[in-house]
Structures are given as structure tokens and as C-alpha cells.
Amino acid sequence: MEDELKKQSLIADKTDSYVILTDAEDKIEYVNHSFEKYTGYTLEEVRGKKPMDFLPGDETSEETILFIQKNVEDECGFSQEIKNYKKDGNPVWLSLNVTPLKNDQEELTGFITIGNDITSKKNAEEKLRLDSFRLGIIREIDG
């Protein structure tokens, strides 16, 4: 059992994906090194806090926040993309794959969130959208 825990810990620490483990109240118990790399927050800084209390910012979609809160309250698993903010205030787009953890009696014991920094993807999508818009204006002018 101890060897299995060591393997799981090693996997969580060595993966490029970030990992967040929370308790039944959605308070952080563990984050891996990738979480620290993507957000700038250490485990010591976030332990006992809810992710939604410090990661969203002014430009985070309220609709997305409500979607996440509803699914956490309903103890449902979900996937989502969200614009969050690093400790230094810079924006970061993160993918979320949230899975509720339950004991043998089907009681919620916490959540595990695994995701990735998708900022480059989102920036490329925005550039493509702007290029498409500009092309449409050029076509109108040319026509």
C-alpha cells in the first residue's frame, strides 16, 4: 500500500498537468508542482482555501463561475475552461476536469481536479477570430 501511494504521489508531482485535491467542502488539501508553476501559488499559500476564492478575477466569466459552483454543490463531475489569474495578476487560461471523490457509502470526501494551462490555445483562437474579423472588413471595403 505504501509503495502504491509513493507511485501515485510521484505521478502527480511529475505530470505536466496540474492536480488539485480538495476535501468535501472544496478546501484545498494538496496541489502538485505544475499547479505552482501555472499559478505561482504554493501549497502552503492555498491549503485550506477554495480554488474559486482566489483564482478568478475581473475578466473571469460569471457564467463559468456559476456553472462550476453549481456542479460542485451538486457533487457532479465536469470539464470546463476558465480564465483565472496567477499570483502576480497575469491571466492564465486553465482547463478543468473535476471528479467528485466518494467513499464506500457514496458520501462525498472531496474532489480531484486535473487540468492544463491552455493559454496558448486561447490566444491562438483569439488571434484567429480577430484575423477573420479583419478579413471580413477588408472584403467589405474591397467589394
Q: What is the tally of beta strands?
A: 5
> How big a fraction of the residues is strand?
25-35%
Helix-strand category? alpha+beta
Largest sheet: 5 strands, antiparallel
Estimate the mean pLDDT confidence. Answer: 89
How is the largest sheet built, in terms of strand order? 2-1-5-4-3
How far is the N terminus from the C terminus? 71 Å
**Overall geometry:** elongated
Helix/strand order, N-terminal first: HEEHHHHEEEH
Helix percentage range = 40-55%
pLDDT < 50 stretches: none
Output the radius of gyration. 18 Å
Helical stretch tally? 6
Describe this structure in words.
- The longest helix has 24 residues, at 119-142.
- Helices cover 45% and strands 27% of the residues.
- The chain has helices spanning 2-14, 33-39, 43-46, 51-54, 62-73, 119-142; strands spanning 18-23, 28-31, 78-85, 91-102, 108-115.
- The radius of gyration is 18 Å and the shape is elongated.
- It has six helices and five strands; from the N terminus they run H-E-E-H-H-H-H-E-E-E-H.
- The model has no long low-confidence stretch (mean pLDDT 89).
- Strands 2-1-5-4-3 form a five-stranded antiparallel beta sheet, with helices on both faces.
- The chain is an alpha+beta fold.
- A hairpin with a 4-residue loop joins strand 1 and strand 2.
Give the SSE map:
Blueprint: H1 2-14, E1 18-23, E2 28-31, H2 33-39, H3 43-46, H4 51-54, H5 62-73, E3 78-85, E4 91-102, E5 108-115, H6 119-142
Antiparallel strand pairs: 1-2, 1-5, 3-4, 4-5
Provide a compact summary of the structure.
With 143 residues, the chain is α+β, with helices and mostly antiparallel strands. Helix content is 45%, strand content 27%.
